[in-house]
Design goal:
The protein is of the alpha/beta class. The chain is built from 17 helices and 17 strands. The protein has 3 domains: 115 residues, Fumarate Reductase Iron-sulfur Protein, Chain B, domain 2 (Orthogonal Bundle); 156 residues, FAD/NAD(P)-binding domain (3-Layer(bba) Sandwich); 151 residues, FAD/NAD(P)-binding domain (3-Layer(bba) Sandwich). Strands 5-4-3-6-17-16 form a 6-stranded mixed sheet, sandwiched between helices. The chain starts with a strand and ends with a helix. The protein binds flavin-adenine dinucleotide.
């Protein structure tokens, strides 16, 4: 039931696309919640185990403070997930069997935003102090969640972040039209008021040595993300005009935030024909950003087959539905193609260091035992496409090989332990995933740290 601002209006700015539902519309939706005996939304769908039926019940009766209390029992940052979570919970809502699911994400957003408006979201007063100093490396959602829980439990927490500001991909990946950055700043202020220290512009392992980190802290948690970008090493890859999607998105977010005055010319879609390679969230974010920058044409190519409109037989409820999704950016225009493999980037004859297009081929997937094994080119389907900007949005292969020696071998146990007093959480531990999973993982690793600390004292 998401409502968006009209396309013509929203393409003129980077402000949030989604609008808040009216109280009446929300109540109508809340009336559809069945308060199921076995709430799959809570138990199977949500990685945070949000108490969705209970929250819905309170919100339906307008008991916002009580709904907020229920929400904050499990979710430290509902203002993030309420905006950008794909809402795994909704995939397992019983109402989704026949019509659209109860919009749990929008309810969550309404509850937390009303909480802020009513002054109900306050900093926690520390009631105890543990003799425990923790260094969290990386201020993405996983690091923020770990810091939040440990600080509230009484630990001294310092978060080291190599970027200029905290937030990870929340700040320098996800566009402002999905998540406005004031929302992150509001949360950081609360955390700082609770005593969490943030040292930004500090790369652990480079600007501060691991030896010094161990001197300062008894425990280190690596929440450095999975940021090694998957490349496309085909002829022409080094041409000017072929760039990584996350560099492109970060550049626009930095300009919006006033951190940079202009977008580097090679990362600007103004007046250009853009091809985005990769059909996921990052690719879709590039589509919306390219239109706002003034692209003349935007296409998105995905190598995997087009997903079905409805659940396939091997994807029954209450599993997450692997179906075709159309984001707000896709609604803004452009061409989407599936089953396309890009073979070569071609150079502009007048300026041979510059991109002027690409060659690609359609593929069909070889399937064995119901699994897609490999793409097979369709004979005679080769085609060319004019392009002056290609954005590679093909995912990530793991943590960046960086200055942190400890990050080279990230093979944690089930609780996120790498070695005594060294832990890992979020995308760095599990591979590229979702904000809600990173938050859940950060909370869990903080729980392990606290349990290990208690055990060491007994
Ligand atoms: C463009 C884009 C759009 C996305 N959209 C969505 C979405 O709509 N919904 C959703 O759920 N998920 C989305 N995701 C995925 C989501 O953002 C990630 O899964 C999530 O941010 C992972 O959190 P994290 O804390 O593990 O890592 P990150 O967010 O990657 O944070 C890691 C942090 O560690 C810092 N760091 C790394 N090394 C060091 C070091 N040595 N010293 C100090 N700091 C260091 C980095 O600078 C970074 O700030 C998107 C991802 C991208 C790239």
């Amino acid at each position: 039931m998401s409502e968006y601002r009209p396309v013509t209006e929203r393409l003129r700015d980077y402000r949030p696309v989604e609008t808040r539902p009216t109280e009446m519309a929300l109540r109508q939706e809340l009336n559809r919640c069945q308060d199921c005996g076995i709430p799959f939304c809570h138990a199977l769908g949500c990685p945070l185990y949000n108490l969705i039926p209970e929250i819905n019940l309170e919100a339906k009766s307008g008991r916002w403070a009580s709904a907020l209390g229920r929400l904050l029992e499990t979710s430290p940052f509902p203002e993030f997930t309420g905006r950008i979570c794909p809402a795994l919970c909704e995939g397992s809502c019983v109402q989704g069997l026949h019509e659209h699911p109860v919009p749990a994400r929008l309810v969550e957003l309404e509850v937390i935003e009303r909480g802020f408006e009513l002054g109900l979201v306050k900093r926690a007063i520390k009631s105890r102090h543990l003799d425990l100093s923790v260094g969290v490396i990386g201020a993405g959602p996983a690091g923020l969640a770990a810091a939040y829980r440990l600080s509230r439990a009484g630990a001294e927490v310092t978060v080291y972040e190599k970027d200029a500001k905290a937030g990870g991909f929340l700040r320098y990946g996800i566009p402002d039209f999905k998540l406005e950055k004031e929302v992150i700043d509001r949360r950081l202020e609360l955390m700082m008021a609770e005593g969490v220290k943030f040292l930004c512009g500090v790369e652990a392992g480079l600007d501060i040595s691991e030896r010094l980190l161990w001197k300062r802290h008894q425990v280190l948690i690596l929440t450095i993300g999975a940021r090694r970008k998957r490349d496309l090493p085909i002829p022409g890859r080094n041409l000017i005009g072929v760039s990584f999607a996350t560099d492109y998105l970060a550049a626009q977010n930095r300009v919006n935030a006033g951190e940079e005055a202009t977008i580097p010319p090679d990362l600007n879609a103004f007046g250009r024909k853009v091809v985005v390679i990769g059909g996921g969230d990052t690719g879709s974010d590039c589509v919306g950003t390219a239109w706002r920058q003034g692209a003349v044409e935007v296409s998105q190519y995905e190598i995997m087959p087009k997903p079905p409109k409805e659940r396939a037989l091997d994807n029954p409820w209450p599993q997450w539905p692997r179906v075709l999704r159309t984001s707000s950016s896709h609604e803004e225009g452009g061409f989407r193609r599936w089953g396309v493999n890009t073979l070569e980037f071609t150079a502009d004859p007048k300026s041979p260091e510059r991109l002027n297009g690409l060659k690609a081929v359609e593929v069909e997937w070889l399937i064995e035992n119901g699994r897609l094994i490999k793409p097979v080119p369709v004979p005679g389907s080769e085609f060319t496409k004019d392009a002056d900007l290609v954005l590679l949005a093909m995912g990530f292969t793991g943590p960046e090989p960086g200055s942190l020696a400890a990050a080279k071998e990230l093979k944690p146990d089930h609780h996120g332990r790498l070695s005594p007093n060294l832990y890992v959480a979020g995308d760095a531990a599990s591979g590229p995933s979702l904000v809600v999973r990173a938050i859940s993982d950060g909370l869990k690793v903080a729980g392990t740290v606290l349990a290990d600390f208690k055990a060491s004292k007994s």
